[in-house]
Every structure is written in C-alpha cells, then in structure tokens.
Design brief:
Helix content: 25-40%
Oligomer: single chain
Largest sheet: 7 strands, mixed
CATH topology: Rossmann fold
CATH superfamily: Vaccinia Virus protein VP39
Number of helices: 8
Strand content: 15-25%
Radius of gyration: 16 Å
Strand order of the largest sheet: 3-2-1-4-5-7-6
Low-confidence stretches: 225-231
Structural class: alpha/beta
CATH class: Alpha Beta
Shape: globular
C-alpha cells in the first residue's frame, strides 16, 4: 500500500484525464478529487474495508474511484463501465500511474451482465474464494432515468460483502433507499455525508460548478451478515 496523505491523493486525482464529451444518457460526471479522497480515506482508515480486499467499481467512468482504491491498498480492483470511451480514458489514467497489474477493466451493461461469472472468469477463481468483496459505486442519480441508482445496488448485492454507494442526500431518499435495500437482502449500516462539486459538463448547466449534498451508504450484504452473525 502507498502511504499517501489525503492531499497527495487529491493531487493525483486532480491530474487525471477527464471526459471531453460526457454522455448525458449515462449521467457521466467525474467524482471530484476532494470527495474521492474523503470516500476512500473513510473506507480505508475509518472502516478498514479496503486493505487487501477485492474491489469492484461499478460504473467506473474515467477511473477516479478505481484508481483511489488501488493506491490506498486494495488487493485487486475491477472497473466496469458500459461506455468504451470512458474506459479508454480510464485505461490512460491507469497507465499514467503504472497500475495495470492491479486494475482490470471490463466493458459491459450491468443490467444484463452476470456479475458473479464475469468476476470469477477474470480473476480465475470461484466467487466464494475471492471474499471479502467490496463494491464501490457512484451510480447515476436517477435524474434522467428514475431508478437507475437502485439498479446498481441490486446488481452489487449479487456479489458484494459490503457496498459503498453514493446517492443524493434527502431524508425521503434515505427512507426509500433503506427500505428497498432491506427488501433486496441488504442492510444500511451507515450513511456518511459528503459534499460533491459538479463542474460545468453539459450545455444546460448555468454555473461553472455546483455543490451537491450527497450520502455515501455503507451496505452490509447477505454474505457479510452471515459471517458476522455466525461468530
């Protein structure tokens, strides 16, 4: 593991290549560098959920979260995205930091993907032997397609022990997601508040940047709960 200060991680993330033409249908935004550092210092050092773990970044985009996970101690990181152009940006960023041995990229649609099979095939081990698996995701917020963020959680629960998922902050959203996650077999263990900075990315954006309150959900999945309660 690289012993990075938070300021050093922020500088690295800020240096990465970003989207030139983000695609609105995928609600593509880069997770800003400060939020990325806050997320992974929380996961790695406050929750101890990163060191030597398998990490899956669903909807990895240009790779901010993928790269932060690799730099801060994940054993192996798999980044998955539907957009081949986003994956090419991610690949360039990974190469610039010489992280190819630690990160694998997969192009595909999570809605139709057998995630367990894909992960097992790429890591050449049965999914049961790869645990614990941590899924990290900054999914579409569902502004353009309602429920798209929940689709990411639904798929994550099929493989993860613990999920970290980023969502818009609102009491009604917290209540809705907590209920839906429980129905899917997961449990919201913690909600960590974050401030995101969204830069001007689309023609309808009127400001150079916008500050958004978000929540990082820590979700315990059935496999994790079985191990916890069996002790």
């Amino acid at each position: 593991m690289m012993h990075l200060k938070k300021s050093e991680l922020i500088n690295i993330i800020q240096s990465l290549k970003t989207f030139e033409s983000p695609k609105l249908q995928y609600e593509q935004y880069f997770t800003d560098a400060i939020a990325t550092a806050d997320i992974f210092f929380h996961i790695a050092f406050e929750q101890n959920d990163l060191q030597d773990k398998i990490v899956i970044d669903l909807g990895c985009g240009g790779g901010n979260l993928t790269i932060a996970a690799a730099l801060l101690g994940a054993h192996k990181v798999i980044g998955i995205d539907i957009d081949p152009e986003a994956l090419e940006i991610c690949r360039e960023n990974i190469h610039s930091l010489q992280l190819e041995q630690k990160i694998t990229l997969i192009q595909g649609d999570i809605n139709t993907m057998d995630l367990q099979c894909v992960i097992s095939n790429h890591l050449k081990q049965p999914i049961e032997q790869l645990r614990p698996i941590i899924v990290v995701s900054n999914p579409p917020f569902g502004v353009k397609k309602r429920g798209s963020d929940l689709a990411f959680i639904r798929k994550s629960i099929t493989v993860a022990d613990i999920i970290y998922s980023l969502h818009l902050s609102h009491p009604k959203n917290q209540e809705f997601l907590s209920k839906k996650i429980l129905q899917l077999g997961g449990t919201v263990d913690q909600i960590f508040p974050l401030k995101l900075v969204l830069k001007h990315s689309y023609s309808f954006h009127k400001k150079k940047r916008k500050f958004i309150q978000a929540d990082l959900y820590r979700i315990l999945c059935p496999t994790c709960k079985k191990r916890f309660y069996s002790h």
